[in-house]
Write a structure and sequence with these properties.
Number of strands: 0
Number of helices: 12
Order of helices and strands: HHHHHHHHHHHH
Largest sheet: none
Distance between the termini: 40 Å
């Protein structure tokens, strides 16, 4: 039987596999996962107007849904406490400057880059499924049962991170930086490439950081971390979360704190998960 025809079901019936056999199986899982990403990228590339005008550049428009929410909140607060807040206090995102492209191939390069990122987001559940197909034969029946929902929870956490960055972090950061001036004599002329870089870093960064509970689950399964260990190093975790937040967000403290908050909530969820893993292991023993 050719190695490229080996399936996970057949792997379960094999007593042992060589290292090269595992590499070959992994290679075909990666080929299928990358193919799914490329298909998603082609779909995104073919829908340029929707991807750029309706998705990527939407947080730069004054009618973006987040700005509308904030403006509505400001109006309601003004009715409740008119002395403390004006109805337009939180009405941000208005009259942001247009983006500039200074590189001859800049727009085409951006089109390809954003299409690949969109392809990854679209195909992420399938990529996780291929990863699961590779590792599941090495698990026992009970471990597979306990890991049921792995694809669903992993994909859900990733998408939650993407949506959180897109609807919360991105519009607030974009509004802050495009309106910030050291002097009225200096005009902001943002470039398309810098805008794309900030958006991609925030969206994908938050998406992967939101996988923290899944990461903790596997570390707890192999005995590297325990619930007690995570509790004892909670202060250090706050510092690490702040550092990670600083990496994926623009250099402003407000965005950094906004990302750190959900990360610490996910860390606390990870403590609960690690505790349940310990309890299950004790029951088995």
């Amino acid at each position: 039987m050719a190695l490229d025809q080996i399936t996970n079901e057949e792997l379960e019936n094999q007593a042992e596999m060589s290292f090269l056999d595992h590499i070959e199986v992994l290679r075909w899982h990666l080929v299928r996962a990358i193919s799914a990403i490329l298909i998603g990228a082609i779909i995104a590339f073919s829908n340029k107007s929707f991807i750029f005008d309706k998705v990527l550049l939407a947080p730069k428009n004054g009618d973006f849904i987040t700005y509308k929410w904030l403006c509505n909140i400001s109006a309601k607060l003004a009715l409740s406490v008119p002395v403390l807040i004006d109805k337009n206090t939180l009405c941000i995102g208005q009259n942001l400057p247009d983006l500039q492209n200074l590189n001859m191939a800049g727009q085409f390069t951006s089109h390809i880059l954003i299409s690949l990122v969109a392809g990854l987001v679209i195909a992420f559940p399938y990529v996780i499924w291929e990863l699961w197909r590779f590792i599941s034969p090495a698990l026992s029946k009970s471990e597979r049962k306990n890991s049921r929902g792995f694809i669903f929870f992993t994909s859900t956490l990733f998408l939650l991170g993407v949506f959180f960055a897109y609807y919360i972090i991105a519009p607030l950061s974009i509004n802050f930086f495009l309106n910030y001036q050291v002097s009225s004599a200096v005009e902001n002329i943002p470039q398309l490439s810098s805008y794309n870089s900030i958006m991609v870093n925030m969206v994908l960064g938050c998406g992967f950081l939101f996988e923290l509970p899944i990461f903790i689950y596997f570390l707890a399964k192999i005995g590297i971390v325990t619930a007690g260990f995570l509790k004892n190093y909670r202060k250090m975790a706050i510092v690490i979360c702040l550092i990670l937040s600083a990496v994926i967000t623009p250099p402003d403290i407000f965005s950094q704190v906004l990302v750190t908050g959900p990360l610490m909530l996910l860390y606390e969820l990870g403590i609960v998960i690690a505790y349940k893993v310990e309890v299950n292991d004790k029951k088995k023993k």
